[in-house]
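B., you asked whether I could sanity-check this one before it goes into the benchmark set. Here's the sequence:
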Amino acid sequence: MRSTTTTVFSLLLLLGCSKKESLFLPSLFAENMVLQRSSIVQFWGVAGQNNEVSISTPWGTHKGQADDSGKWQIGFSTPNESPSFSIDICDLSDCISINNIVLGEVWLASGQSNMEMPLKGWPPSDPILNSANEIEQAGNFDLRFFSVDRQSSLLPAKNVRGKWMLSNPINAADFSATAFFFAKELYKELNVPIGIIDSSWGGTPVESWTSVNALRETQFYENTTDNFSESDARLAEFEKWIAPLTSFPMPGANSTHSEWMELPFNDMEYANEIYDDKNWFDIEFPGNFNDVFGEVVVNDFDGVIWVRKSFYLESLDVAYFLDLGLIDDMDFTYINGVFVGSSFQAESFKEKRYKIPEGLLKQGKNVISIRLIDTMGPGRVRSPITLKSINNSTINLEGTWKVIPSAELYENNFYRLDENYVKTSPRPDFIKNTSWTPSVLYNAMIHPLIPYKVKGVIWYQGEANVGLEDEYEAVFQAMIKDWRKQWGYKFPFYFVQIAPYNYENGESAALRNAQYKSTATSNTGIVSTLDLGNAKNIHPANKTDVGKRLANLALGYDYDVFGRLRASKPVGITRNGSKLIVNFDCQDGGYVSLKPNTNEIEISSDNITYYPAKVFADGCSIILSSYKVPRPKYVRHAWSDVSTGSIINKHNEAICTFFLTVE
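And here's what the prediction gave me:
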C-alpha cells in the first residue's frame, strides 16, 4: 500500500475568500462537471453578505440568499437528459459561468490503494491488466472524473483540491482503475455520461475516513477524538515539549534492516540484564502500545519503546525458542543482554520464532528486553509471547511488562527520550495529523464533498485494518451510516472484500469476514475477489472484473437491469440433524456450485477444531456434513490469507469469505 507525506491542510481551502464580498464556488463546481440527472442537486458557496444569489440553467432560474456570513446553498431539480450546457451563478456584483456541464450518473469512489491505483498501474511491480489498450480506447466513453487531492485535517474542511477531467487517452491513465471499469460498465449499459468523484488514499485505515461523531458511537476511539479540540494549542504545547530533545531523521522507505538496527537512539543500556527498571511504567501484552507514559494519557504515540520482563527457569533444557506473534512495526529482541532476533517489514506481521543461543539461559532469573518501533498508526504486539524448549515445556510471557519510551517520532524525525525526561516532563496528549489519524481524511476529503448529489458509493479498502477485525466491523458500518446521515439520504453503498494476499499472519480472513458481516447494513452489497487476487501482490492486476462486479450490483439494484445480480454471499444457515444448510443470495435464475478440486469449507462443533466438510450443492444452497462432527455449529469458507474459495456462482465467480454460526 502506498503512502505519502501528509500536507497540512491549507487555510486557503476553507470556504471563504480573500475578499469577503467576492462570489466563490467550491472546486467541485467547475467546467466538465457532471450533475446527477432526475434529482434535486445542491449548489453552495460564498457571496456578498445577504446578497441574492441566482443560478441560471437551461430549464430555469433558481434563487436563494446568502446569510450574514455570505454563505449560501440552493437546491434545484434536474431533468433526465440534456445536451451539454452552461450554468451562470450570480450575486449582486459578480457572475461565474460554468461550461460543458452534463447530466448523468454520479458515483463517489473511495478507499485505499486498490481504489486509488491508476489505470496505468504502478509499473513495473504493480501493473493493471490490459492497461495500454484501455487507456488508448478511453475516449470512446463519456466518463468524467474528479480526483480529490490527498489532504488531511484535524477539523472538517470546506473545500478540496481537484478538477473535473474528461476521459481520453491522456487523462484516463491517472483515473482510478477500479472506478474506471465500474464507470465504463455503467456507461455501456445506460448510455449516459458517468461522473466519478474519486477520493482515495493508499495505505489508509477505515477510521481515517470516519467522522469524529461516528467514531465516538463505536466506543473504540473515544479518548482519541476527545483531543481534536484546541488542536493548535495542543500542537504548540507538544512542540515546546520536544524542543529540548536531540533528534535525527527517520530512514527512508528503501532502508535496510541493518540501518534500522544501527540507528543512534542511545538506549542500549535498556537491553542490559541488570538494568534497574523498577521505576518504569506497566503495560499489558499482548496489546497496543500507544499509551506508554504511565498516568499521563497519550493516544497518539509513534516512536520507540523498550519493554522488559523477568522470568525464571527451575531447570535447563537442551534448547529453547522464543515465539512472538504479529508486531507492528518491528522488534529487536534481547535475552540477558544478548541479541536473539528481530523482525522487519513484512516479517514483523507474522508469527516468528527466534532460536535462543546455547548457554544463554540460566537457572533462576532471566530477563527479556525488546526494543519496539512503530512508525505510524497503532503499535501492537499479538499472541503468542512464549518461551518453548525443544521438549515442549512452555513459559507464558504474556501479561504485565515494564515499559519506557526512548524516542518520539514526529514529522519524520526521531526525538531521543531518556527515562528522567519522561518521568519529570509529562508528555502533552497531542494528536498528530497523519493519514492514519482517525477522522482526518473524512474531514479533508469527504466532508467538503457534502452535499454534492451522488447516486451512490463504491468502496475498496481494508488491507490497512488486517488484524483489527472487531474494530473494523463496528467502524465500517458506523462510517456507512454516518456518510448517509451527513448527505441526508440512504444511498447505495457497494464495497469490495479484500483480495487474497500472503500477509503471513493468517488474520486477513477475519477481516474479510468483518466486511461480509457489514452487509447487515441495509442497501449495501459486497463483491468477492477471492478468484481475482494475487497471493504475492497486494495490488491485484485484474481491476476490470472488480469494476464490473461493482457495476453489476448498481445495475441490478439501482437501475433494474435484469441478469446483473449474481450470488456473492450467504444469507442464512440452518441445521438439520448432523447437517448444516447454507443459503445464498441468488437472483435472476442464479445458483451456486463447487469449484472442482478444492475444499475450503470447514465445519466445527466448538469453533476450535475444524474439519473439511463433505459438501453437496443444491440450487442456491449447500449442504455440509462430516462424520467427525456429529452436531456441527460453525462453518467457515476460504479461511486463510491466500484462499481462492470453493463456492462459485452461476457465472463462475467466487462467493465471499464468511463465518456462520447456528444455534
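One thing to flag: The domain at 246-424 is CATH 2.60.120.260 (Jelly Rolls). Otherwise nothing jumped out at me.
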